[in-house]
């Protein structure tokens, strides 16, 4: 299907079904029930799942295939956001030109940064990318360029926002009722939702989410094609043995630079989509913690695998939201069945791991995965799959053993 | 005609003169061995030929063109392939994938961006790689992880990968180092077969005299960075200077 092999098509179809049915699948608990806080089927969070999925897919093309660990990928995400917001300010609120510009801007910067950083490999490459990202963060945070040209470019720590007096050449500066127009795709607003109430469940279908999901599926499809292409083979060869590559008449630099730019463009695309859903861009998106997050996502899910980065992105964003939401009141209601003293003790113990302390939980989960599942969640899935298969094998061998033993008795 | 001409090549590492003044001609379609005791400069010379090192003095001409100042991948594209002392293959990839990479390098040059095409559709590359694997009797290991093969098979694969590019000059750096006798003999037979079937020049660095005398048509003896003598294997065997500098030591050991 679409030029994919059988098992790749199957994977793609599974991901497509999951992404398109997410508003149902992520809302398993009825509204108002005690478990409803674990629902993730609301547009904001689902958008973050797929947008960070795109970011991680792109990062994995670089890190998973070539082994070059970029520690400054969030810079491209931030650049994408700034590019998109500028397009909303100057051209129109249609998201297509905004996303196109964000991809181009990220690609151009990736070309420059990659050209310099890829002169080194290993830890030195990581440090160079980190240094570039931090420089760009500092420039954006202080709006250095803006101060130079006399008009805000990144608008410093406030972040770049839309205003009523933006030109928007192809659109309108302000709606008739005097508010800022909303981001849209040829008139269809990103914010528009369709609510479906079934029994106690409330399913929300957001147009914005579906735009993100379709873009994610396209990015995923392109990533599969790259994985299975001769180009992808060369990238894996770079990771495996650069010396042999050089002595096989292959110049590794253009390969690594090409994938660095592609990967940066994926990040720019994610940044552009982020701004399309919520039209503002801040420097904090470029900070090194954001770069670290995509590394975590990719490793947690399984670097070098197709589906791993998407899983990792979903996993981290889900727990970030859910754990951050749990406060002491929720904890008290959980442990209410215990005697008072014990209840307070339990709440005190669990307290540092939830709410603002969710990073602690995430850190522990990351450690456990890296120690016990070096291949990430994908490896976990494979092990579970193998466990079932082995159990089947064992069952049949036990049966055959039993049959063997019965034979002499029968004779 | 000499396909490889090394003239007055010298290389110094700090206080050590690794190569003094090396002159060497390798005739086209011959098998030329370079021998010498440890530290004689054999590997340094080889590294100067493939672009890993740049000599301080002298010139290296391959087929009338200078190789000096060119990158290893450019020199390879000129038609020089190198087999390493420890087999350098793509350990993370399967045997078939290993074999396809030089086929791509031969067809597409040092870089080509075919990011959305499928490998499965590259019929000519797949065919050529399979053909090479069959010729090298590796076809039954096609989908094996190449890192998990035996040393002898890795060596076979590396040689196959070099041959897939149809090089004009094949450089071998101690191709039988660390091999069992049986593997060594297999490698000798393989190299003999390659020499018979192909228009190829082979230059070989080797410690193992058995390998050298069963393959080489000409031998250069290197000692302390300078060629001591160059002659046919029969003359080398009886050469007093060589016995003194090299063979004598080996026999005594």
Automatic annotation (TrEMBL), chain A:
Gene Ontology MF terms in the entry: branched-chain amino acid transmembrane transporter activity
Coiled coil: none
Membrane topology category: Multi-pass membrane protein
Localization per record: Cell membrane
Family matches, as InterPro entries: ABC_transp_permease, LivM-like
Regions that span the bilayer: 46-63, 94-116, 123-142, 200-224, 254-274, 294-319, 360-381
Keywords noted in UniProt: Cell membrane, Membrane, Transmembrane, Transmembrane helix
GO CC entries: plasma membrane
Source taxon at top rank: Bacteria
Record has Secreted as a keyword: no
CDD domains linked to this entry: TM_PBP1_LivM_like (cd06581)
Stored PANTHER family: ABC TRANSPORTER ATP-BINDING PROTEIN, HIGH-AFFINITY BRANCHED-CHAIN AMINO ACID TRANSPORT SYSTEM PERMEASE
Protein name: Branched-chain amino acid ABC transporter permease
Protein's organism: Sulfitobacter sediminilitoris
TrEMBL record, chain B:
Signal peptide: none
SMART domains tied to this protein: AAA
GO molecular function, one term: L-valine transmembrane transporter activity
Domain ABC transporter: 4-249
Keywords, in A-Z order: ATP-binding, Nucleotide-binding, Transport
Entry annotated with the keyword Nucleotide-binding: yes
A Gene Ontology biological process term: L-valine import across plasma membrane
Keyword Protein transport included in the entry's annotation: no
Entries under PROSITE patterns matching the protein: ABC_TRANSPORTER_2 (PS50893)
InterPro entries, A to Z: AAA+_ATPase (IPR003593), ABC_AA/LPS_Transport (IPR051120), ABC_transporter-like_ATP-bd (IPR003439), P-loop_NTPase (IPR027417)
Cellular component per GO, a single term: plasma membrane
Protein name: ATP-binding cassette domain-containing protein
Organism the protein comes from: Sulfitobacter sediminilitoris
């Amino acid at each position: 299907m679409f030029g994919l092999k059988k098992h790749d098509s199957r994977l793609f179809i599974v991901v497509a079904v999951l992404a398109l049915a997410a508003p149902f699948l992520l809302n398993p608990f009825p509204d108002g029930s005690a478990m409803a806080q674990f629902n993730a089927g609301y547009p904001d969070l689902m958008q973050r799942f797929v947008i960070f999925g795109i970011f991680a897919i792109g990062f994995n093309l670089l890190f998973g295939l070539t082994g070059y660990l970029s520690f400054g990928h969030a810079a491209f995400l931030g650049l994408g956001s700034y590019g998109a917001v500028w397009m909303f300010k100057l051209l129109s609120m249609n998201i297509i030109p905004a996303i196109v510009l964000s991809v181009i801007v990220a690609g151009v910067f990736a070309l420059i940064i990659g050209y310099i950083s890829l002169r080194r490999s290993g830890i030195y490459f990581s440090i160079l990318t980190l240094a570039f990202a931090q420089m760009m963060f500092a420039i954006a945070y202080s709006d250095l360029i803006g101060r130079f040209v006399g008009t805000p470019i990144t608008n410093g720590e406030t972040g770049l926002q839309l205003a009523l007096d933006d030109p928007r050449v192809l659109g309108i500066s302000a709606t008739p009722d005097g508010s800022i127009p909303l981001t849209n795709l040829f008139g269809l607003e990103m914010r528009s939702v369709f609510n479906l109430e079934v029994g106690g469940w409330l399913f929300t279908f957001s147009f914005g989410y579906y735009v993100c999901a379709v873009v994610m599926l396209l990015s995923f499809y392109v990533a599969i094609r790259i994985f299975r292409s001769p180009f992808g083979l060369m990238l894996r060869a770079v990771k495996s043995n650069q010396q042999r590559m050089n002595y096989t008449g292959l110049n590794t630099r253009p390969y690594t630079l090409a994938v660095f730019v592609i990967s940066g463009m994926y990040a720019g695309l994610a940044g552009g989509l982020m701004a399309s859903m919520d039209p503002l861009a801040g420097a904090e998106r470029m900070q090194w913690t954001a770069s670290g997050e995509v590394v975590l996502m990719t490793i947690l899910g399984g670097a070098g695998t197709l589906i791993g980065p998407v899983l990792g992105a979903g996993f981290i964003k889900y727990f970030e939201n859910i754990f951050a939401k749990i406060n002491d009141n929720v904890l008290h209601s959980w442990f209410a069945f215990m005697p008072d003293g014990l209840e307070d003790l339990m709440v005190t113990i669990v307290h540092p791991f939830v709410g603002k302390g969710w990073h602690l939980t995430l850190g522990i989960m990351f450690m456990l995965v890296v120690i016990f599942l070096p291949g990430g969640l994908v490896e976990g899935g494979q092990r579970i799959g193998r466990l079932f298969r082995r159990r089947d094998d064992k069952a049949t061998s036990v049966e055959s053993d039993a049959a063997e033993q019965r034979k002499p008795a029968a004779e | 005609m000499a396909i490889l001409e090394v003239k007055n090549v010298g290389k110094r590492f700090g206080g050590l003169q690794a190569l003094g003044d090396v002159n060497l001609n390798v005739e086209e379609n011959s098998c030329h061995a370079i021998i010498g005791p440890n530290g004689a400069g054999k590997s340094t010379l080889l590294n100067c030929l493939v672009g890993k090192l740049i000599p301080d003095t002298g010139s290296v001409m391959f087929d009338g063109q200078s190789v000096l100042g060119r990158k290893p991948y450019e020199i390879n594209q000129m038609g020089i392939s190198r087999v390493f002392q420890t087999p350098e293959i793509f350990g993370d990839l399967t045997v078939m994938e290993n074999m396809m990479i030089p086929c791509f390098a031969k067809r597409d040059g040092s870089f080509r961006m075919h990011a959305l095409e499928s490998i499965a559709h590259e019929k000519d590359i797949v065919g050529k790689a399979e053909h090479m694997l069959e010729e090298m009797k590796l076809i039954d290991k096609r989908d094996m992880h190449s890192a998990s093969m035996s040393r002898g098979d890795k060596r076979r694969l590396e040689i196959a990968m070099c041959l897939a590019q149809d090089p004009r000059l094949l450089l071998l750096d101690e191709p039988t180092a660390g091999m069992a006798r049986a593997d060594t003999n297999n490698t000798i037979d393989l190299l003999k077969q390659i020499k018979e079937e192909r228009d190829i020049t082979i230059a070989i660095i080797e410690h193992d005299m058995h390998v050298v005398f069963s393959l080489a048509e000409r031998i250069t003896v290197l000692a302390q960075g300078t060629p001591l003598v160059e002659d046919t294997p029969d003359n080398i065997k009886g050469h007093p200077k060589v016995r003194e500098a090299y063979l004598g030591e080996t026999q005594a050991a």
